[in-house]
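Problem 3 from the worked examples.
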Amino acid sequence: MTMNVKQELTERFLRYVQVDTQSDSKRDSCPSTPGQWNLARMLADELKAIGLEDVTVDDNGYVMATLPANTDEPVPTVGFIAHMDTATDMTGAGVKPQVIDRYDGGDIVLNEAQNIVLSPRDFPELAGYAGHTLITTDGTTLLGADDKAGIAEIVTAMDWLIRHPDIKHGKVRVGFTPDEEIGRGAHRFDVEAFGAAFAYTVDGGPLGELQYESFNAASARITFVGKNVHPGTAKGKMVNALRMAAAFISKLPAQESPEQTDGYEGFYHPHVLEGNVEKAELRCLIREFDRNRFEERKAALARIADELRTVYGEERILLEIKDQYYNMREKIEPVMAIVDVARQAMENLGIEPVIRPVRGGTDGSQLSFMGLPTPNIFAGGENFHGRYEYVSADTMVKAAETIVEIIRLVASAPFPPGIHKMQ
């Protein structure tokens, strides 16, 4: 791809990140926020403009479109998926992206007035981007590369293929989903209407990332019911819900937390605590790659709740655990050819594949269990969900090239018969 493609891709990305699409777990609507509707409609118009067919935005805000096949050979339909929403950790409103051409490898002042600096001292991988065109925040918002970089790369790849009909390919489907960041991205995804044999989410991090394993995930909501009395006369009467919550957290193994684990290590993550003496609510994430250990972790929370009930009373601690998604490896291993194609595509482009598990959720985790095997490939972003987020435009071009190369290989690679079943 040419420098013009890099410019076009960058311009697309800059347009997308300025649409506020932060999702909201407290709302039941789908999408959960109106900004996601705005981006969905914008994307639908753009997909039509570049020449895709069957462009739809359904009643839940899911965008789908088709790049028709330009070969008569039997080729499985492949899909590419990215999510439109941004994380709830930090605001995605009023994003003011900054473009740094030929980054020199040193500190980047994001916001001089607030003394916010993106530095390789804090983020050592940053120095490896010397010479790249980087896109950063202004230090007051997140950027939204997760996952608007993936959207820009998919749209750019489709645009390239339409303008280069000499590249033979089968039918390609693209999909853009709402509310991935709050765990609902695949909940109302119409796999049958999408009609792909398999797909890839373009929702990974640095160059070469290729993932087909994810956590088994559950969320726990623990409610502590206290009894409030004036603190001056509270002896033998007060039951402090906040102290119960603190006691519960203290029983979680400190070494099994996000800040102490990596690779294939699971964790407990108490991430929200709200309340007062009378009533408190703790929300905790449970993550584990192995299904048996996953069940053990859920059972461990139930044991902690039972232990504390013996101290504070049966009725004072309520525990609710809900499974969120499962390790997509279970569904992808039987069709590993789709991972091999992505690996080969990267190698053909001189990219070293970096195969590692997803330490988080992607739409692909749920879609794989809904009948659409969906590994994840890199989109190029770093430091997701916060003010220090950035992405390399050069890596974004590589991601778009990888999408094109996967599509080209799918048209030429022999696949097991089962992979064709959803054509």
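Problem 4, a separate protein:
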Amino acid sequence: MYFISYNVVHMKKIKVLLLMGGGGTEHEVSLSSGREVLKNFDLEKYEVVSMIIEDKQIDIEKIKAVNPGVVFIVIHGGVGEDGTIQKILEDNGIKFIGCGSKTSSIGIDKTKFKKLMEENGLPVPRGIEIIKNETLDLEKIKSLGKKWVVKPVGQGSSVGVSLVEDILKINEAADLAFKYEDRALIEEFVNGVEVSCGLLGNPSANSGQVIALPVIEICPKNKFFDYEAKYMIGRCEEIVPARLSGEVSKKIQEYSLRVFELINGRGFARVDFIVNGDQPIILEINTIPGLTPNSLLPKEARAAGINYPQLLDKMIELALE
């Protein structure tokens, strides 16, 4: 059981500006997260104003006009997760939930994130970055194995991701990834159990340590945990705590805490893994993880004894430290 102190309970109502949408590939997912957040705010604690960003443009004057005590960002990917909104808010002295701009920019960029993990001795899949309009080095790709995962460097929700089992289809997968941006990753396919571990806390704040939530196991009915499996009810089963040994689960939590420390995380995040045998392999970090009815972080929190409204309280409390 994870116990939280609720400093916000004793304060006057906090004005919360909820930002959702973002105009990118995850716009609809963001709106779903936003609707769920709105349903679960304790209106005795918060005065809530919602704002939908439609076209990737952030009007700081509109945000200032609201005069929020804290901005609650549920824009997944794009301007909500690449540090754009965070930098604007930082420059204007406005508090917001989650990681800062520099952390967000590393977390969204799969190549930068992998490099940081490799430099610090943490396990990640082998891979190569490819650039749009450049000829693929098929021999180099073959050296990664016999199956590959191709993904855009900066997208979330498995947008543009392909699992490739035939080298003759690698160009087709690359073309799909390049529909979304000019850089992509080709990684070795790692067989195993897909899991995720959520984090709550501020490493250097008065509240003390960051807490690793129970590990959740992801069992998609599709070939991998793609967009459909993530957001369509019935396309995936999540089991928490994951059906892993205590030793492996502990290792995943320790890796997650280390990742959060290395990227200078704040507030909350979620780290995704593939467990190959007894070895967790780090896939990526989500600095604005989904908060939809089907999302992983709220399910992990619930398994730790934190219901959805309490999770929102904690996110705001951490933002205000």
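Solution to problem 4. The first helix runs from residue 27 to 40. Confidence is low (pLDDT under 50) at residues 1-10, 224-231.
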